[in-house]
């Protein structure tokens, strides 16, 4: 998180390396994970075995808190820092069982302008180098799975284009020791085609041809390759230009790895079998008859699941104060749902929960973070993530900053890499008051889900007592259950004890959690509900393309999926320049896309870049190894 | 390794999963690695910290044995299996300290037609799933480093094309809190340009322009992107076609990850500082004046080293019989040198060695494998790998099979996936005798390096005693120091005890190891020596392009590098169809390429594919997770 200069504070990396982490095995033991349930990857990170859920199945769940934020400035308002600071306060200061659940950051942008993402100040995940680089290889596994499917699609199109039906069938089911056989995925495809035969020699020529020829319409192909690198020149490419490819070239693109549907699948899977099934359901194109073609049809969903079999196990690390942190999955918050994994939350909730007969006071807390502003991250947390998991959140912590509220009140633009305007570092109650409406709208939104709302006013060093008091009073007036200044960036968990106590109180009485819409409504109706209720739009308008896509998905049987809006986080509206609480606008939906494996439909509201670039002087210039000590220099 | 059907034997995967591995911490302890020097990645694989070399620096090295082979059939003749079987015999049966050092297999081909690579039968590395998939992420780290450089190159060309000298310089050295500064790599570039200034504001306009403008000649760009996926349609592509790239499109390619020069650098680095320096020296293009442009000039060699900081630590696993195996690096054997890492060998030799005052009988053995036939793998092991490491091998184990020798004697073609001709499964002494010359040539070659030669006749179930005896007698007659039938595939280490005893005896007297050529000879002279001495060619012929490339590299100061021939392994000559001992041919060199970071020049003798494809029914069709047990099915 980027902060104005604060001369007393050491830098994030100085703070992080000054702290000697506990062994991850110790962290795991403290939270009740058995030695056999943890798989160390070095000293400070480990994977948790999924069978822990069997052992703990009779426990109640701990309290479930989602951290969301107001509409942010481009610098971010400290949701991650607050998630970590709150967990530190609950665990290290109030002696509660407490686990933070966060997303794994994308590695590519670490070498661009972003720097590391591990909280900030005295509220961080450590070691931050391991958190930001490779971790335990989950994103690499996703990259491998995603690209295996991509290679398989193009290879299949090549083989179909260059072989007769008969040759194709014969090569798909070659004799092994004289016997032809179908693989599991081939049997699934036959079943889908209504051919209930299990012996390749029993198929008629017509059946063999239908089975063998996927007949993909290249113009409908949506599956991209991915890399965890900021590589702008891969945004649009032509492949298949080697002489071996016999002229079968086509345009396609690379996205950054975390934009892969495989990442969204990982985050939304309930268990290994669910992940395997979801990978198989992913739609990569339509055939020339307009029917969806899936990864199962391509035959490599099983192999993708094999590549991701360790990635599905959550990673455990720790905060600066030794509180456990689960780091797992990091899907995009626009074209995907921007939340960490269901599996990590489930395990954390069981570890935090209590056995029958235990005292309720021993119940613990799981603090999970939702990406972007609450209009996006919290909405998707509630309508997509918890709908799959069946877990009921108790409260939302809404992170607000004086800086962002001043911007919403009409303050000048806040831009990464440029000095802040003086209004952001001097007291300005008038501007601040004007901007509070944005916080009010997010409080109202959270209330629509029946959640307890705790506003965390994340303190920066220049914020004045009068400014903090103004926001606190405003929040309580417009319906927040609690509103608490928090100073965990400068003071660690100690700075978030009041916030933690408010969260404990908020969770002590039941919430009335509910979804914003029913799945059985038409796709466009669900989009409209989100646009009106969350964004304050008058309604939505679908482009002709978007309407056609909606019609196709409904016809193909995907009409009952939830909606995952791909919208800017920088405004409640579709226009990043409209701050505060925009009204009187219609949400324009240009295109609608399907993630059938992740199980949502995502309308595109504006341009969403899925491949970042590198500036003239990217971060990598300053990153190096100290050849004598082997330490990393310049990463943060 | 592919074998003819042997009804008594269980499959490789059945054998592998029937054995419960020891904990990797136990394996490490047994070989004398301290707990602090090992970093577990799960239960059965770990990384070894490089500082172990400081602790053991006063020890002598153990005995150093390289396993090479005769010219193979396309099915492979069991070098990996022999490496593992020999280590099992030395360690588990003869109670010697013994460590096998092998390459990490590429993951991509695992989903194509190759299947896993971990030895075979009762001589395997386990767990084979972890060996073949992800391992500890080294190849993923190489992919990330390779592709960061690729993205940085294209981004730099884009920024140079769209900015004035002044703007470019200003953006490369932007003011931070009012002060402009150079990064470490920028200072290295200035030094290279002869500009000994350290303050950006001191540069003249002309100096600033020279510094800022790399002026890459796009037609000389050799750096490819990589993926660890068999993706044929990336063999030739056009990038930069998005509107954001302003028309700066160009043709380029993806290779499979293990073909990256970063992999060769990893394998040849002596330590972390050496790896960092080699990454910086990698040449990615020439500028328009014909001068080499390096990764250091691009400014991201330090960041690449950071991405590879864990990859440089060798991985430890185990054989079926609990012998330690170091798995580290897997460079191509044609465009690179095809040997596992120097660092792994160095650590293994120190662990196998003895302290002053220890009894010589306690000295141990390190068995390392060289890829392809001995004309390639062993030659590069001796002339490239040991020249960098300074380590002196004691003996070579030359693996021969009756099957391959019959092929060299004129037997019909051996093709993967097709049934073997009866001559290969029935006794045929005449054909066998005719083919022994190939073995003879490899023995002669090994002798040219002054090495003790132990021929291992790797027994297949159909091989007859008369056939084994014929090869044994032949080998001893033409100068092998030892020739021993070995049956470790069927019997594990017990089947290689005689081989192990021969190796022990061979290592008990000194070898007279020497290089085949001096580095200070001209590049083409060094190529000629290899062609004549190793391949039996009459000489070499350079195409005009190759000659121009040789001239350029010598002018640029790369003339003293060793040669890394990119030649087929399927013949001693350049023509894979010429079996036995081809004579009367001139080796045609079509192009010559430079790996300045790995530090060799590689002449291209024929087409070398650096990106495999997928067949109509690739292996992935049969690979799946058992959703109930989570076990992998169909991988091998």
From TrEMBL, chains A, B:
Q: Which domain of life is it from?
A: Eukaryota
**Which UniProt keywords are given for this protein, alphabetically ordered?**
ATP-binding, Ligase, Nucleotide-binding, One-carbon metabolism
What is the protein's name according to its record? formate--tetrahydrofolate ligase
Catalytic reactions on record: (6S)-5,6,7,8-tetrahydrofolate + formate + ATP = (6R)-10-formyltetrahydrofolate + ADP + phosphate
Question: Signal peptide span per the entry?
Answer: none
Q: Which GO terms describe its cellular component?
A: cytosol
Please tell me which top-level EC class this enzyme sits in.
Answer: ligase
- Entry's Gene Ontology molecular function annotations: ATP binding; formate-tetrahydrofolate ligase activity; methenyltetrahydrofolate cyclohydrolase activity; methylenetetrahydrofolate dehydrogenase (NADP+) activity
Q: Which InterPro entries match?
A: Formate_THF_ligase, Formate_THF_ligase_CS, P-loop_NTPase
Give the matching SUPFAM superfamilies.
P-loop containing nucleoside triphosphate hydrolases
Q: How does it assemble?
A: Homodimer.
Q: Which pathway does it take part in?
A: One-carbon metabolism; tetrahydrofolate interconversion
What's the EC number here?
A: 6.3.4.3
Q: Report TM segments.
A: none
């Amino acid at each position: 998180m980027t902060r104005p200069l604060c001369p007393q504070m050491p830098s994030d990396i100085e703070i992080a390396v000054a702290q000697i982490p506990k062994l991850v095995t110790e962290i795991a033991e403290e939270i009740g994970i058995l030695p056999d349930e943890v798989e160390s990857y070095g000293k400070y990170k480990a994977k948790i075995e999924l069978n822990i859920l069997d052992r703990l199945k009779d426990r109640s769940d701990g309290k479930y808190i989602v951290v969301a934020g107001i509409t942010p400035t481009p610098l971010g308002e400290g949701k991650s820092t607050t998630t970590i600071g709150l967990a530190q306060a609950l665990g290290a200061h109030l002696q509660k069982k407490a686990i933070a659940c966060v997303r794994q950051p994308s590695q590519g942008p670490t070498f661009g302008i972003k720097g590391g993402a591990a909280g900030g100040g005295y509220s961080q995940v450590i070691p931050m180098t391991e958190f930001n680089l490779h971790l335990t290889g989950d994103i690499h596994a996703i990259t491998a799975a995603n690209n295996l499917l991509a290679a398989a699609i193009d290879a299949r199109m090549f083989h179909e284009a260059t072989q007769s039906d008969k040759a194709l069938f014969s090569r798909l089911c070659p004799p092994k020791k004289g016997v032809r056989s179908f693989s599991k995925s081939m049997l699934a495809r036959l079943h889908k085609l209504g051919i209930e035969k299990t012996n390749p020699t029993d198929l008629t020529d017509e059946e063999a041809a239908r089975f063998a020829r996927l007949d993909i319409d290249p113009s409908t192909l949506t599956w991209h390759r991915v890399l965890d690198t900021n590589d702008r020149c891969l945004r649009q490419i032509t492949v298949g230009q080697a002489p071996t490819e016999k002229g079968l070239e086509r345009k396609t693109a690379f996205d950054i790895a975390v934009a892969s549907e495989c990442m969204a699948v990982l985050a939304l899977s309930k268990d290994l079998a669910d992940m395997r099934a979801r990978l198989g359901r992913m739609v990569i194109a339509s055939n020339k008859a307009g029917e969806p073609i899936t990864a199962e049809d391509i035959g490599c969903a099983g192999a993708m699941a094999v590549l991701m079999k360790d990635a599905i196990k959550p990673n455990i690390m720790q905060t600066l104060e030794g509180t456990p942190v689960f780091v797992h999955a990091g899907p995009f918050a626009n074209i995907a749902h921007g939340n960490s994994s269901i599996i990590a939350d489930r395990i954390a909730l069981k570890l935090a929960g209590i056995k029958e007969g235990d005292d309720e006071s021993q119940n613990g807390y799981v603090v999970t973070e939702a990406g972007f502003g609450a209009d996006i991250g919290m909405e998707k947390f509630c309508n997509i993530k918890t709908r799959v998991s069946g877990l009921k959140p108790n409260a939302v912590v809404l992170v607000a900053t004086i800086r962002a509220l001043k911007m919403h009140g009409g303050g000048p633009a806040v831009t990464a890499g440029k000095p802040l305007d003086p209004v952001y570092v001097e007291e300005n109650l008038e501007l601040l008051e004007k901007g509070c409406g944005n916080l009010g709208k997010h409080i109202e939104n959270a209330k629509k889900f029946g959640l307890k709302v705790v506003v965390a006013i994340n303190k920066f060093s220049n914020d004045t007592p009068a400014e903090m008091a103004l926001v606190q009073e405003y929040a309580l007036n417009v319906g927040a259950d609690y509103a608490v200044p928090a100073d965990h960036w400068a003071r660690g968990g100690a700075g978030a004890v009041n916030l933690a106590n408010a969260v404990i109180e908020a969770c002590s009485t039941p919430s009335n959690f509910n979804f914003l819409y029913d799945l059985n409504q038409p796709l466009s109706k669900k989009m409209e509900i989100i646009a009106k209720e969350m964004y304050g739009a008058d309604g939505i308008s679908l482009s002709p393309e978007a309407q056609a896509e909606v019609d196709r998905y409904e016809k193909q049987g995907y009409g009952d999926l939830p909606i995952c809006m791909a919208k800017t986080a920088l405004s409640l509206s579709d226009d990043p320049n409209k701050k505060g609480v925009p009204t009187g606008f219609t949400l324009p939906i240009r295109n609608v896309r399907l993630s059938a494996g992740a199980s949502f439909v995502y309308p595109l509201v504006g341009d969403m870049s899925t491949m970042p670039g590198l500036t003239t002087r990217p971060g990598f210039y300053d990153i190096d190894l100290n050849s004598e000590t082997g330490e990393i220099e310049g990463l943060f």
